[in-house]
Amino acid sequence: MKHKRAIPNRGLRVADQIQRDVAGLIRELKDPRIGMVTIQAVEVTPDYAHAKVFFSVLIGDPAECAAALNEAAGYLRNSLFKRLQIHTVPTLHFQFDRTTERAADLNALIHQANATRAKDADDQPGATEA
Length: 130
Prior knowledge:
alpha+beta, GMP Synthetase, Chain A, domain 3, three-stranded mixed beta sheet, 3 strands, elongated, RbfA, KH_dom-like_a/b, ribosome biogenesis, cytoplasm
């Protein structure tokens, strides 16, 4: 019996679909600890057993939101099972994504360095920029 060939980029497509569906399902949750949540990315294991769902929060405490989302993971997985056309629906693990915070911190550091450089250039009379 011939084995089926692997579908190229299937894991990425499944992760993208999970991201879209989970984002829609989170809006239906009634838990007040879940504020304005944005699903940033989803990483699915090769066997589709587990999925890390990275999220950011505009309003609310990230730790409380993560706890609430992880408590609702069973409900979300069950709802995904009804929506997705795959044999194995992964167990969802929610993690707060700090990428936005890090980007803001780096942006502030770059701005500070540029301001310091401009101030140093102004302090040196007769200095020209290269």
